[in-house]
Amino acid sequence: MEKIMDFQHEPGRYFLQDNDKTLAEIVFTTINDGKTYAINATRVDPSLRGQGIAAQLLDTVIKDAQANQMTIKAVCPYVKKAFAQNPAKYQEIEYKP
Prior knowledge:
single chain; alpha+beta; five-stranded mixed sheet
């Protein structure tokens, strides 16, 4: 069973911190006049890989983006792959220039 993580947020990233170590993060910039998050990188510490952490992190970013009427541009390979593998889930949030 997946453990539900409590991610933190600060400008430009969502992350999971343990003491001084970042265990997982999504790094983004804001484009489209502040209406779109361009996700540039998704990183998960090797000790947490294969546990669905990256997916939970992406879902957290998407939930916040939806709440703020924003869209997501997939730049990093992980998010591009997630969007391509599940278009029905992400079609409403995906940035379409």
